[in-house]
Amino acid sequence: ILDFLRAAEGLKTAGRSAHTSAGEPESVAEHTWRLCLMALVLAPSFPGVDFARLVKICIVHDLGEALGGDVPAPEQARRAAAGETGKADAERRDLLAPRAEARLAKALDKLETILQHT
Question: What's the CA gap between 13 and 30, in Å, rounded?
């Protein structure tokens, strides 16, 4: 467990392609924190969604970036078009896609990024 938590600490220093409103580079951990806050604040608007499952998805959604770094959306799209998405990514999408919580987490993730860019 400690090894896992130490590896997850990498999210504190893993940079994203976005910057904070103060002009500083944004970390993945900062993005994840606000995403979780958004889930907390907006969850009452989605009474059919299991909040515990939603927040769990939000917490772990970018965990891989602790090891591999951030991949900006345009690069993700390029890789997907070139068929370069990993098997694990495809399996994760297949597993989560049908769930309302996964769809909402994905939408909130995009919303958080848009808010940061604007």
Answer: 10
Name the nearest CA neighbour of 28 among 3, 63, 56.
63
Task: State pLDDT tens for residues 45-58.
Answer: 999 999 999 999 99
What residue type is assigned to position 74 of the chain? P
Q: pLDDT digits over 20-71, tens only?
A: 888 888 888 999 999 999 999 999 999 999 999 999 999 998 887 877 666 6
- Residues 6 or more apart whose Cβ sits within 8 Å of residue 107: none
Angle subtended by helix axes 51-60 and 28-42, to nearest 10: 170
Residues 6+ apart with CB under 8 A from 112: 31, 34, 35, 38
Cα-only R_g, the chain: 15
